[in-house]
């Protein structure tokens, strides 16, 4: 699965030169259709998709500012440092094949196809760097074999064809939560059932299933929130005794703050891509996020 097109170096340098002028502007945003027959993980940076049919995955990294000549860094390092450690290649077995393409709204699209030696087995990779407005985003695709790559390829190709770059919007100002009657009333542990990847220890490496599993939101009386599959982290199931500060350092994507405004719950999470969630509250205090309803425990 390779995308071919041409892009002049002049166009690329023009794109890089826009960085200074746009440094204070909201970062652009990637829009795309998720790949069919792929399960979306809970992470937001990167957004993760795993094939339900073979060992193949896609990660989408949001735009981030860059300085210098990204083309040089790309050809020298494949921007490996931008890749989450769980998906970062350790041993590139072949010389990467570089190409380029055009995506609506992007100033440059750089592509590399390469094979990783993963414990003696070839792992297929394709990585796209999308440049717009002095920032760059990455779409990283991989599969544990040529057969898996061929099987998942059509879904990944369709996803890539749907990508477009749109202007970002200014982030909402940080909330200033604190003890409030509504916040204290909402404090507690809330549970819903969300699909979670479970490794098949009896099958091939990377295989598994996606059964529904308990997923939790923890709210403190002081206005802090943490989301997790692992309720064992909460001493005696009391969110007031949970170490929100340590969670914020170790897992910023799932740590944040919240306020209750009228009949709406507003949550802001940190990490590389700050995320704001607004969820209506029922009279019983439950709320729904991405189709999953969470109720107080």
List keywords for this structure.
297 residues, Protein Transport Mog1p, Chain A, 2 domains, 6 helices, globular
Write up this protein.
The protein has six helices and 19 strands. It has 297 residues and is an alpha+beta fold. The protein folds into two domains: 9-166, 3-Layer(aba) Sandwich (Protein Transport Mog1p, Chain A); 181-296, no CATH class. The strands form four sheets. It has an eight-stranded antiparallel beta sheet. A seven-stranded antiparallel beta sheet has the order 2-3-4-8-7-6-5. Strands 1-9 form a two-stranded antiparallel sheet. Residues 1-23 have low confidence and may be disordered.
Tell me about the largest β-sheet: 8 strands, antiparallel
In CATH terms, the superfamily of the largest domain is Mog1/PsbP, alpha/beta/alpha sandwich
Mean pLDDT: 82
Report the C-alpha radius of gyration, rounded.
21 Å
Secondary-structure arrangement, i.e. CATH architecture of the largest domain: 3-Layer(aba) Sandwich
User: Beta fraction of the residues?
Assistant: 35-45%
Number of E strands: 19
Q: How far is it from the N-terminal to the C-terminal residue, by CA?
A: 47 Å
**Helix content, binned percent:** 10-25%
Count of distinct structural domains: 2
Q: In DSSP terms, counting alpha (H) and pi (I) runs of 4 or more, how many helices?
A: 6
Query: Overall 3D geometry?
Result: globular
CATH class of the largest domain, please?
A: Alpha Beta
Strand order of the largest sheet: 17-16-15-14-13-10-19-18
Low-confidence stretches: 1-23
H/E topology pattern: HHEEEEHEEEEHEHEEEEEHEEEEE
Structural class, from secondary structure content? alpha+beta
The fold-level CATH name of the largest domain is Protein Transport Mog1p, Chain A
